[in-house]
Design goal:
This protein is an alpha/beta fold. The protein has one domain: 3-Layer(aba) Sandwich (Glutaredoxin). The chain is built from five helices and eight strands. A hairpin with a 5-residue loop joins β2 and β3. The N terminus is likely disordered.
Length: 159
């Protein structure tokens, strides 16, 4: 009886709270974006074209997001052809820029003030990491904190 109560309570909660949460994209074409980076440069999804890529949804207030930076940067070091971009989710632009500086990000951290990119990728919160093939298809995703072994397994699908 308790097992049935949990799913029923989730359905009731969603109905009452008008929750429309969907899982992040699992496959298909990676949505296009054109966003301003924390350093002021404009970056579009064109930088992903023809190269394996990681699109990482990040927030400065998210402790796992901050911890993942080292894992993602190390992966980029092992795979020099890999493009890595971060997209800021539900965060203050100033805080995100400060975090980018503090963490010494060597890849663009993109501001998404109207959450258009987050909606396109169906991301509600950070961290979520997408792996994109050379031809622009989503080949995998990691929801939650990224660690080396699961990331490397997913990277094999796009390298």
């Amino acid at each position: 009886m308790a097992v049935a109560a949990v799913p029923a309570s989730l359905l009731i909660r969603r109905a009452l709270n008008d929750e429309t949460r969907r899982d992040p994209l699992r496959s298909g074409p990676a949505p296009a974006f054109r966003l301003e980076a924390t350093d002021g440069a404009t970056v579009s999804s064109d930088i992903l074209a023809g190269r394996p890529a990681v699109v990482h949804f990040f927030a400065s207030w998210c402790k796992p997001c901050r911890e993942e930076v080292a894992v993602l940067e190390a992966a980029r070091g092992r795979h020099p052809d890999l493009v890595l971009v971060g997209v800021v989710v539900r965060d203050d632009p100033g805080e995100a820029a400060r975090a980018a500086g503090e963490l010494g990000l060597a890849w663009p951290l993109l501001l998404d003030p109207d959450e258009a990119a987050a909606r396109a990728y169906r991301v509600d919160s950070a961290p979520v990491t997408f792996l994109v093939t050379r031809d622009g298809q989503i080949a995998g995703r990691l929801i939650g904190p990224v660690t080396r072994l699961p990331l490397e397994r997913q990277l094999k699908r796009i390298l």
